[in-house]
Fold this sequence. Notes:
Blueprint: H1 3-11, E1 14-20, H2 27-36, H3 46-52, H4 58-68, H5 75-91, E2 94-101, H6 103-107, H7 113-131, E3 134-142, H8 147-157, E4 168-174, H9 186-194, E5 198-203, H10 209-219, E6 223-226, H11 234-243, E7 247-249, H12 251-256, H13 268-273, E8 278-280, H14 285-288, H15 292-303, H16 307-319, H17 325-341
Parallel strand pairs: 1-2, 2-3, 3-4, 4-5, 5-6, 6-7, 7-8
Helix pairs in contact: 5-7, 16-17
The protein binds hypoxanthine and zinc ion.
Hypoxanthine binds near residues 58, 174, 202, 253 and 283.
Amino acid sequence: MTSNLHDFxxxxxxxxxxxxxxxxxxxxxxxxxxxxxxxxxxxSSVEEVRAAYNFSDLQSFLDLYYAGAAVLQTEQDxxxxxxxxxxxxxxxxxxxxxxxxxxxxxxxxGISTAIVFAGIARALREAKAAHDFSGxxxxxxxxxxxxxxxxxxxxxxxxxxxxxxDLWNGIGLDSAEVGNPPEKFAAVFAQCRELGFRLVAHAGxxxxxxxxxxxxxxxxxxxxxxxxxxxxxxALMHKLVQTQMPLTVCPLxxxxxxxxxxxxxxxxxxxxxxxxxxxxxxxxxxxxxxxxTTNFIATADALALTREELIQLAKNxxxxxxxxxxxxxxxLNELDRYVQNH
Length: 342
Ligand code: HPA
Ligand code: ZN
């Protein structure tokens, strides 16, 4: 692909809808925070950390991801983490992020949910005021833990809801998928729905198409995170097209976690060309080799995406967001102007 199209991708206004903020912890910041908080790391250098990022599946990644998160202790740590992500996102002309965070990863270490909220929110609000960069927060339950634990997590977060009403609007489901089907969380998602939260869930990353069905039918989510295994079920594919259910696909994540053996084998282009509302996202960019532009470029090169398809992906990212209709229209207008001028 020509470098012109690469430049076009970098400047393309876009939204990121699948980003675990803890997964944006770069080894350099991990070391700095370890020192600041006197946390002992299992590595002696940044290079050693990067060399350890050789994953065979989702669980092999999650083990390192949860270990790395141990350096996050104070409000300032969560602020620094989030601000570092925002700077990288802005360099890729990401205009809006709906970021995931995992309170249970932190409460298990004695860090309160209030500290996590405060640090992330301060960075998002500053970026909004200074750069018109917009963000919102999706609280995720860890699916390898019990539904009772999820209920406790929700109960700990709800008193903070009014304080973060401008940011926290979503509930998600992440961590080890296989053996932890969506229906395990039916009751807590029903309560979140009654409370008026927007709902998403990881499904069909490593788990079977049946998990996508139950995320839709039982949890009643409005987006599927990953969803790449939908292709194995023709009836499901038909339903996803008919309903224009967004899939937040993460190509470099799928490559690093061996969901696909080769980016050229990735089904993103097939799904897009079949009429699904597909988006490109970075998932855990510090662990998987890149942020939004890197994901777009690697995918565009591997699958020969056209300029029109790249524009469609950017459009999908805004349309699939949980922003207000007028806000979406503003971004789509900005995208139109960009396309006219490039
Ligand atoms: N899948 C499931 N859980 C996760 C992921 C993922 O890709 N990243 C962080 N938690
Ligand atoms: Zn994810």
